[in-house]
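Data availability (excerpt). All sequences and predicted token strings are deposited with the supplementary files. A representative entry, DUF1150 family protein, is shown inline so that the format can be inspected without opening the archive.
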Amino acid sequence: MTAPKATPRKTGLPSAAEFSTELSGAGLSGAELAALGTQTIAFIKPVEQEGRTVWSIHAADGQPLGAAQTRDAAMGAALQHNLTPISVH
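Structure token line:
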């Protein structure tokens, strides 16, 4: 049985199901797919804490790694730990 062909969308990007099928065809298990980026990506997002905004740093799997007073400090902390920072709003 062959995987269904991806139908181009207006954005030109595959849907999540098409992308997942593509990666599964590459021999990745669900656990391996979920682990993509966990060692290389840090998500940075603003959160309210005690009435003020701080910048939360999370691993790709959602695990909290830390927080910083400013966005720049959070980005710098991620870079110092060899992680690629990505802003989440």
